[in-house]
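[job 4417] fold queue: 2 targets
>>> target A
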Amino acid sequence: MDQIQHNFIDVNGLKLHVAEIGSGPTTVVFLHGFPEIWYSWRHQMIAVAKAGFRAIAPDHRGYGLSESPPEPEKASFSDLLADLVGILDFLGIDKVFLVAKDFGGRPAYLLTVFHPERVLGVVTVGASFPPGPSVYIKNLPEGFYILRWQEPGRAEADFGRFDAKTIVRNIYILFSRPEIPIAAENQEVMDMVDPSTPLPPWFTEEDLTAYGTLYEKSGFRTALQVPYRSINEQFNKTNPKVEVPMLLIMGEKDFSFKFPGREEYIRSGKAKADVPNLEITFLPEGSHFAQEQFPEQVNQLLLAFLTKHV
């Protein structure tokens, strides 16, 4: 971890934090989800650097050590795409491999379809290209966590009862379960986790402190806007097909795999209609955080893909 360097660069009027390790000729950019920051890719960054690649992991705007936009409630996925392009331009990098999970898959997808000349290949952990979550959640009840967090003020009131470390702790425990997080009618999402519940065995108190410290700085305003309140953002792209090589690492105990219609889309081969060069590997015990839960397995799959397509 000590070898990872931390830099701040000016992109689109904001100071964005970028963690970096390695000096190889080929760059791998890691895009985090929620409730994560660059740190969620720590195992993979070190592994690809040792294999001769340059690893870069930004904190999205408003996350971790990256500056928040002046009006977080107006942040969008278009901003994240512009930030990603800006980071590559600032660093003078023409083409990259992208590694993404959770909502980090959306800016990865957008860069791939709008700027395919800049993408060598894509690896996602649990995030399929397209459709996005909005397609799958239409038939879920109102207690579904995304619907709750889309409601103005509701998550703010729920989160406001706890410190940042407890919020991250609860979400990590909740999202590590195989069941879709759905609160009861008179229950808040944070109350779905009993305070006595232990952390997942692969997530240490040291890890939790790292996350908690960074969310203490950033808060959750931007995080609630992107992804949850921007989930239905539309993009004008006539051909959404992804032509670059792609690997999907899908944990079979990732709760998002149970979104209505999603497993069928992935297993049936329909996903390959949108991504012709798609490979899929299933991790039978993999949760929503497979890259932290099974770092060695994910690293092996990632390095095999990179070596094949470099």
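>>> target B
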Amino acid sequence: MFHSKLSSKGQKRWRFPLDIDCLRVNVVGVGTLIVVCFVTTLICQQLITASDPVGFSQISVGRSIQSLLQFDDREKQQNISQDIKAQIKNALKIQRRLIKGEMDGYLYPRGRYNMSASKLSDLVPELGGTPVRSIILTTWRSGSTFLGDILDSHPGNYYHYEPLLQYEIVQIRGPPLWHEARSLVRSLTMCNYTTLTDYLQYGMEHNYLFTHNSRLWEMCGQFPDLCFEPEFLNSFCRLFPFQSMKIVRVRLKLFQDLLNDPRLNLRVLLLIRDPRGILQSRKHRVWCPGNPDCTEPSRLCADMVSDYSAAIKFSKKYKNRFKVMRYEDISLDPYSSVSELFSFFGLDLHPNVIDFLDTHTKVNIGGVSSTYRDSKAAPFHWRNDLSFEEVAQIQSSCKSALKLWGYRTAGNATHQKNFIPISKEFTFA
């Protein structure tokens, strides 16, 4: 408590109940500390000036501070990097276990399908094996999403869904676009994401590039920081014994380069669909109008004629690694057709695949992009959805394509509603 008394002049003076010796010690201590700091500063300035007579001392001090900040940033980055590496290690461990479980009891080729693989390690790139690489090549709205999802239902499959999405609504028929696109396709089939900056950036902005790859997308949900990291994707992709891809923006003749590459060991399916069905289906897509490669029958059917010419050559040159199937044939008899397709690709018709067919081929569920379809009716909607005038215009532009691929023409509006538009006797030469 403070006490006061009047001074000789009548002014009130405050007195503190504090030991005067303690106060003196505190004052002396603070004073001494100030003097020491002042002297130290002078000495440092003298030393800096003596060693730096041309006046760079302030720059040196600034650089020292900057170096400390950079070191702190590097340390933070190292911590982040270490965390990412730990996450990658954990994710790969989880996926190895999942693949092992999926492949339990799997029926390996053991000489069938021109393949010698007899165990998982024979097919896993991480273990020095060569994976089964399957590619579906077609055009927009030809049934490839359905077929791609069938392949993804197979155990141990890694699905590269439409890797050329970033090219938008364009058909690639040659250089210069093909050189870039070919490099992208080759990199993905070799599980090399390191230089695919544009591809990954597109995936970040359009996640449906990855969502169809069910196993990758599931891991992205558990480890969101890894999803677009090349270091993770390189290693993750190399865990899988089966790798599939669907491409709708490249014409067949260009694929000779990739089929000739022994490192890839590709098996390619050319999927064909009636151009009337394709164009009817495209009418329901908002991305199609205004893009000639999508809307013009003449372009579509010129590509189909070109693909037929290339397919004749490929079927002879790559007898065990190239095949043609029509979407309509697959839809009318999905179980038999998928069995034939899987034998070509070197895949076992696993119970998971049968379950997929059981649930996706009998009823219509969802919108235009759904793969739940009454498969026997799906290919022929165009007979009722298109007017005869529209059909006649398509048929006029597509006479050669229709004939080459075994499709019949509608004679009039009544005939269009009831006829069978495919030739069941068609066999590819």
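[job 4417] complete. Note on B: Residues 3-45 form one domain.
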